[in-house]
Design goal:
The protein is mainly beta. It has one helix and 13 strands. The chain folds into two domains: about 40 residues, N-terminal domain of TfIIb (Single Sheet), CATH 2.20.25; about 70 residues, SH3 Domains (SH3 type barrels), CATH 2.30.30. The strands form five sheets. Strands 1-2-3 form a three-stranded antiparallel sheet. A three-stranded antiparallel sheet has the order 9-6-13, with no helix packed on it. It is elongated, with a radius of gyration of 16 Å.
Amino acid sequence: MPIPACPVCAMEHTYQDENLYICPDCTHEWEMDEVADNDNDERVVQDAHGSPLTNGDAVFVIKDLKVKGSSTILKKGTKIKGIRLISGDHEIDCKVDGVSFKLKAAFLKKA
């Protein structure tokens, strides 16, 4: 069984120490048993209005979003097609005008 990515920061540099998995990037530690429990849980990602999102959905941005580390702004009303759900605090992976972004579902509305 491969060692899973960190559930907190999603980095894949984790390692095993006896019955614990440890992430050197964010120093998060979790037991091996937790991974088996989490695999059975279906994670439901909801938009700002509580509608469930799935891979491939189209969404709209509900407020202007400043892109961290850039002068780019994602404008309110921007339509994003073909989203992909990922784990972590930014649940949505998408492309807007050929540029990849990771967004929080709380700032999106299902189209």
